[in-house]
Amino acid sequence: MPSILVVVLTAILIATVLNILLKRAGVPTIIGYILSGLVLGRLFVFDGIFTQKLSHIAEFGIVFLMFTIGLEFSLQHLKAMKKEVFVYGFLQVFVTGNIFGAILHEIFASEIKSAIIIGFALSLSSTAIILKMLNTTGDLHRGYGQIALGILLFQDIAVIPILLTISIFATKSSSIEMLLLTTLIDAAIVLFLLFVIGKMVIEKLLAWISAADSEEIFLISILFIVLGTSYLSHAFGFSYSLGAFLGGMVIAETKYKYRIEADLIPFRDLFLGVFFVTVGMLIDLDIVMAHWYIIAFLVIAFSVMKTTILFVILNYFVQSRTAFKTAFTLFQIGEFAIAILSLANVNGIIDQKVSQILIVTVIMTMFLTPFVLRNTKRVADRFFVEPEPGESVLTSGNRDHIIVCGYGPLGQKIVKELKAAGICYVIIEHTSALVQAGEAAGEPIFLGNAAQRHVLKALGIQEAFAVIVAIDNLKKLRLVCEAIDSFDVPINTIVKVRNQSHKETLEGLHINHIVNESEEMASILIKEALTCKFEKITA
User: Which pTM does this prediction carry?
Assistant: First the structure.
């Protein structure tokens, strides 16, 4: 068994080299991570304890992903999506799970218990891959992206009764009624703690922490909230990711959501990378070589059937193009299926050989997903000519608005003028004291770092009429302007600088208007001086 440091260094080296090479060929980094795990699995021999510990760490990739998704979904947003979650999601899981289970039982003579577990495990899709790619492309806010998200949320909820079913099938002592009652009580306790107690405490806690004006303390507190809500959910028998999603929803109601989301992105991406590496390590090449024809058949059969079932369901509710793109997006089998199949094998519900073949099949569908998702629009264009539905309202809820970066003395004057002119605007400020002052004045102000691209995107910068940067700190000014310049679409940007030296630091960036404070002040002073002279002469 190699040392952990050797494994980590090797993993980083392989992942870096592979992703650089694959990125040049236009292959998503997810594939690079999975291939890195495959190579690691062949280079080192890991015992079960090490693999299990690594899997626990990797699971936090999904935890952080679900928390950041939860930040975009307040209770009001979830109510608005009730059809996508509780109608489309329920129908997809129920119909797909029953059809797969019936085929396994009737055609392949599987035992009824294993057929039920396998059928519903196969109905699940990959939350980690789909949401990462839809977030990257911006399609998460499109019609089909919202439907896909709603179905994925229901699938995550559906994991609970599937795991409960495994417990029921494996139990020898506890009654089914007692298990169901315990689960309902636990669910009620978790929801009460998060949405009643949590809402009362969390915003006051974050305000108290923000008052310390320390990035490190704030970040540590956010990590505590993420891990705490995840553990609370797990302690009551639910998944870590479900607790993280609910915790994100609680914070979505606060003014800290954008700052928190931006701070967590590096952790989310890092742990997601670890997650995909562990997925690659689960691929057993010996099983693949010995049963490649069975695995190839299952990958094609499951993918085609799953896509067809969902397309038929959605075609009754939405236009055909949207139904097709959603079904095409959710064709694969997800990471939770791996956990369910492994647990079913441990409890003697599924045979070891069948479990391994199915797990490799699941991973192969996940491996194909990035390639399929990148061609979703192209394939849809071949079959459907109807127009694409418009995008959903973005998180900021604004279009053709002005984003004001900075709420210092100048920013406050700008906001006052915008308000007097009746212009829609939103403010982003990094100092908690200024945010509190803005809130007291009833301003649409958010706590966050305008130098982070994700924060600007969340505020709808690509739909904004203009961005006004009213920041004095030169280093921060440059970082904010670089973040604005990184967007593909042209953005009308107005920046205030102190002098010519500060203006030169912005050279090379696509800034529409740079207002030089010293030059403007000189012009104003000369104008005032000439006015005074003219008045003196005429007097």
Answer: 0.64
